[in-house]
Specification:
It contains two helices and twelve strands. The protein is mostly beta strands. The longest helix is centred in the N-terminal third of the chain and has 10 residues, at about 5-10.
Length: about 190
């Protein structure tokens, strides 16, 4: 199928909208979703899906590609109800997993080194991510709008954050790294 035909067919497909994550999905995630950094609370980062295996992996082809405009992805994406949520430092995207169409993009310029970003946490229809200048941001998962922004530590003192927040029930667990000013030899 050529690009023009694929583009025409993509307009005929129903438009996906960002969805809410059922809190129970974190305790017993379905096999067709990846609702947290580790997939579930076990931390194994293992999927029980078996449609792709050693016998058919060579037959996989590209279904779609998404341009992050220079932002390197080093994070584990979330997949909830057919929507991929992925992040890079200061950026979060919601993308229709079936057709690769962007639903929304959030960008927040921050100070600090852009050394990497490990992903997002999700609870109901809220996404959580940390920033290179040690903030915890909460976004509305349906629209990508900021709900709140909390400073975790002072970036001017060398603190930063790259980790994917962990959501347990209605609690968000995250942390900071840094304070390079007290390390000998630097």
């Amino acid at each position: 199928m050529d690009f023009a035909a694929a583009l025409c067919l993509s307009w005929l497909a129903p438009l996906a909208t960002a969805q809410e994550l059922d809190a129970g999905a974190l305790l017993k995630p379905a096999t067709d979703t990846w609702p947290s950094y580790n997939g579930d609370y076990s931390g194994r980062r293992f999927s029980t899906l078996d449609q792709i295996n050693a016998g058919n992996v060579n037959s996989l082809t590209l279904a779609w590609a998404f341009n992050t405009r220079g932002s390197a992805l080093k994070a584990t994406p979330l997949e909830v109800n057919g929507i991929l949520y992925f992040s890079a430092p200061d950026n979060v995207w919601a993308v229709d997993a079936r057709f690769g169409r962007m639903i929304w993009h959030y960008q927040r310029p921050s100070e600090g080194d852009k050394i990497g970003h490990r992903g997002l946490g999700m609870y109901k229809d809220w996404l959580y991510f940390t920033t290179p200048d040690a903030h915890l941001i909460c976004l509305d998962a349906k629209e990508g709008k900021v709900r709140w922004d909390v400073e975790l530590a002072d970036a001017k003192l060398g603190y930063f954050s790259t980790m994917a927040p962990l959501v347990i029930r209605d609690h968000v667990i995250t942390g900071v790294s840094g304070d390079m000013t007290d390390v000998r030899g630097i």
